[in-house]
């Protein structure tokens, strides 16, 4: 399983080998912005224009919540790349796939047909959990997705739910776990076309550019700027990863928070306020 994505990574090896420089000024600003937050947090930012990074507890583990859907997308696109699935193939929905909640796909009647492409769209755009668990299964399950992550050098990011041997991790982190560095790294590999073919990489980026949940980190980015993103939220954890490209700025930013004291679901939730604050700080910083 370690050979799943290796050829493409070797082809992109020249990009991986370039040394990154630390932006100490930005790190200082980020550290100051995090002071007083009632929870645990980690941040990773990569300025792609100048290959400079800023990291605050970037290797700390956090629940992914719905950011796990980027790993599921990776597994699905690998299957499509191999010809084992077709992006436009028809699938048949069954009631047994239902994940209780307010998802769109869960409102389907059993035996209704839907294209794979639309199930992927629902997973990423509206963060539909019924669609996501169906796609996790179609991707080969959590074990196969974890093998793909391992093959690209990710050791912190793992799918836990419905994955044999990951029960203890699921108790601690929920559906999946990651670090700010690795979740930003996964986004970067999509941007740099290092996972699958160029055409499928571009499709992944377009899909991630249609996020319905745009009221946190995305909200401070001007609407004429391209943003690919995925966010995740459970009671005590709120996280988000972005690729921002426009107005001379080109960067990837990930913030993960967990063990948060504020578990409310209102716009003024402390972690969401922090996310908007940090996102604006990074956007403004690269505009100077």
TrEMBL record:
GO terms for molecular function: beta-lactamase activity. Keywords: Hydrolase, Signal. Transmembrane segments: none annotated. InterPro entries: Beta-lactam/transpept-like (IPR012338), Beta-lactam_cat (IPR045155), Beta-lactam_class-A (IPR000871). It is an enzyme of class 3 (hydrolase). It catalyses: a beta-lactam + H2O = a substituted beta-amino acid. Residues 42-257 form the Beta-lactamase class A catalytic domain. SUPFAM superfamilies: beta-lactamase/transpeptidase-like. Residues 1-19 form the signal peptide. Pfam families: Beta-lactamase2 (PF13354). One of its GO terms (biological process) is beta-lactam antibiotic catabolic process. Its EC number is 3.5.2.6. Belongs to the class-A beta-lactamase family. This is beta-lactamase. It comes from Deminuibacter soli.
